[in-house]
Fold this sequence. Notes:
alpha+beta, 3 helices
Amino acid sequence: xxxxxxxxxxxxxxxxxxxxxxxxxxxxxxxxxxxxxxxxxxxxxxxxxxxxxxxxxxxxxxxxxxxxxxxxxxxxxxxxxxxxxxxxxxxxxxxxxxxxxxxxxxxxxxxxxxxxxxxxxxxxxxxxxxxxxx
Length: 134
C-alpha cells in the first residue's frame, strides 16, 4: 500500500524555462510525507507534545528522470521500504500520469528533545508500516 498526494505545479515552483526547479521536488515530497502521516492518524504536533519526538530527514537520494512543468498536475506516491527502532526509509515517487518524474529514497529518523536518536513512537511506527511495500 502507498499513500498518494496530489498537487499542482505553480509558477513559483519553476525556473525561467517553466521547469520545476530541482530543490522544489524536496518540498513536494516533504508535504506528501506530512500528509501521509496525518491521514494515517499521526498528528506530529501532538507526537512532539506527548512524546518529545520529532522526525528529521537524515538522508535523501533523489533521481530526476523527467521534468515537471508549470501547471502540471503531479502525484507523489509514498511507500515505506523499511522501519527500524529509530529510522524509516521511504520511497517517494513524483509522477505525472503514468510517467515517473523523480524518485527519492528518504531516510527519516526520530529525534528527542535532547537532539539524540529516539525510538519511533508506536502510533507513528504503525502508520509507517501501513505504507510498507509488498
